[in-house]
Amino acid sequence: MMMSALFHRLDACEQKAEAHDVVGALALALGFSFFSYAVPSLGAEGANSAGMLMTNYPQGWQDRYQAKQYQVEDPVLVQGHRNLRPFAWGGGDYLKTIGPNERRLFIEAQAFGIVSGFAVPVHGPGRTCGLFSVAGPEQQPHAPDVGHSDFHALLAIAQAVHSKFVRWQTECATLTDVRLSEHERLCLLWTTQGKTTWEVAQIIGRSKATVDFHLRRAAAKLGAVNKVHAAFKARELDLL
User: Do 232 and 198 have their domain in common?
Assistant: First the structure.
């Protein structure tokens, strides 16, 4: 009954903050401590410059993930962009299938209670592609069987979250005549290539503070929650 009520709340959510809380409650009800929704690919051919648009991962891990640019090599994001079916990740057997650099990412995540999880790719119209993932501190991935109700619940959550982000992006496009300055567009464009703010500053010959300023202005114009979300929306709106 609780799950049914949470799904109804998620369906009715109009604000990202409320959706964040409801999705966290749904993940917890399914036995997972954490969740994330990401865009597996933002950039040009072969580039993987995704970011988490909604997550309850510990802030310390989010900061480390961004600082280390792990979105470039995160095998969950890479696999999520290529896969059509849900898949489990983490745990001893999974770590044996990936390289040492990728293993380092997962070993560091374990210190924040992120040991294994289950990811659901969602492919929508045009270039829209989202990846919903749940995780917890268990040593072995919790991968619900395809015939189990938890499996279908995760698919439903992933689809609901993805459709809401696509709708919010579309509403922003229809309600706002977005005009990006050349500097805003350029900073977002390099962000889609996985460049940090400092790297963008070096490339365009401006200070880091100036790049931060342009990215904040662009995010505000696009109604985005962060620079990666802004880059995603700008790309979807063909502004880059």
Answer: yes
pLDDT in tens, 2-43: 888 999 999 898 888 899 999 999 999 999 999 999 876 543
Q: Which of 119, 144, 172 is the last residue of a domain?
A: 172
Whether residue 76 is found in the same domain as residue 161: yes
Tell me the pLDDT tens digit for each residue of 190-233.
988 888 899 999 999 999 999 999 999 998 888 787 888 888 88
Nearest to 119 by CA among 134, 105, 130, 129: 134
Same domain, 199 and 84: no
Give the domain extent around 227: 177-236
CATH at 219: 1.10.10.10
Helix boundaries (H) for 112-225: 149-175, 182-191, 197-204, 208-222
* Total domains in the fold of the chain: 2
Provide the strand spans (E) within the chain: 34-38, 52-55, 87-90, 116-123, 129-136
- Token look-up 């992933």 returns 158
Percent of the chain's residues with pLDDT above 70: 87
Average pLDDT, the chain: 84
Q: Which residue do the tokens 């109804």 mark?
A: 8
Stated pTM of the model: 0.71
Let me know whether 32 and 16 are in one domain.
yes
Q: Say which residues have a Cβ less than 8 Å from residue 162's Cβ, sequence separation at least 6.
A: 37, 122, 124, 128, 130, 132
